[in-house]
Amino acid sequence: MENTHNFLLPKTNLMGTGAIKDLPNQLLSFKLSKVLIVTDKNMISLGYVDSIERILKNLFISYDIFDGILHPNPTVSFVEDGLTYLKKGFNVFKRNYKLIISIGGGTNHDCAKAIATVGTNGGSINDYEGFNKVTKPAIPHIAINTTAGSAAELTMFAIITDQSRKVKMAVASPFLTPYISVNDPIFMTTMPKEVTASSGIDVVSHAIEAFVSTEASPITDSLALKAIRLAFEYLPRAYENGNDLEAREKMMFANTMAGMAFNNAGLGYVHCMAHQLGGFYNQTHGCYNAVLLPYVFEFNSPSIPEERIFQLCEAIGPITRNRIQAIDIIIDSIHELRSKIEIPGNLTEMGLKAGDIEPLSQNALKDISAFTNPRQGFVDDIIYLIKSAS
Ligand SMILES: [Fe+2]
């Protein structure tokens, strides 16, 4: 019986408080003439871009800054604007960008991945929607992360909104994986409370969906369970006090481990629906996950082996050998965590309109995350889940 599991990650992952100090050594290993920084104006005003500029200047590496990412949920038009900037570098300065450095959260990393991919493969990012459509390596990419998190700094996915179709496209290919990820909690202390909450519950969603995925392996299981333990313990602390560096560091590790898990095990129906809701209403990704997660877990529970339900329950806190009790504890604990970090309790509060539920549900089942959900459903099941969370 074949039972293979590939495990993909960036070549190097700098992690922990002060990890950024190793970036100059890493940069020296590239023979760099010019770098494109992909970021947004908020990252510039927080001083994070300035700290990377200083590193580049000290190494005599020239750079340009593309800061045209205007809101969370990256769009095709942001990618096109970035590509225009990239080509300006090709034509005017006659010097190709040898490296892209993204600074920010998942939005900026995903946008950078798309720019890096189209930069070498040509065409438009829409041409690469789906799994393994990219045929050439992207421009090398270093992702410096400021949230915990989407884990986009270390995954092979880019989620880009095509506004013309109101669809969040998933582009997935090993070629999108950044060369180096940097997760230094020093870059996370200024994360606003609402971003701490939504990105933190995204971590929980990644870990739970990876743990129950049809592609889970013993390696992704151990990463997912540890991420769940850390997030349930430290997310409320990071939310209450953004300067709690211990809580920020634990959430950084939870983000990294959950990202490693889902990059290799895949996700499920929570992300299918959250992606499409984001395409329609442009609210924060993690908030959709927070609301959907308990309903999807209940829907999936008949397809999750009993021992795995007990392991998941134990990672959250209580130990029980009663299946029904364990499912109830998991569902109640997710609701409780969501409430503690003040995320709205239903999709209606996040703008869901009844008339959109059917097209949203149709799109959700086409999302690549659908294939690894432990229980396969039909459009009516997705409609039921969205209505349950409304
Ligand atoms: Fe996510």
From TrEMBL:
Q: Which InterPro entries match?
A: ADH_Fe/GldA, ADH_Fe_C, ADH_Fe_CS, Alcohol_dehydrogenase_Fe
Q: Where is the Alcohol dehydrogenase iron-type/glycerol dehydrogenase GldA domain?
A: 10-185
Keywords from the named record: NAD, Oxidoreductase
Q: Which GO terms describe its molecular function?
A: alcohol dehydrogenase (NAD+) activity; metal ion binding
Q: Please provide an example of a Pfam family that matches this protein in its UniProt record.
A: ADH_Fe_C
Q: Which domain of life is it from?
A: Bacteria
Q: Which residues form the Fe-containing alcohol dehydrogenase-like C-terminal domain?
A: 196-389
Q: Which family does it belong to?
A: Belongs to the iron-containing alcohol dehydrogenase family.
| Protein name in UniProt | Alcohol dehydrogenase, class IV
This protein's species is Desulfosporosinus orientis (strain ATCC 19365 / DSM 765 / NCIMB 8382 / VKM B-1628 / Singapore I)
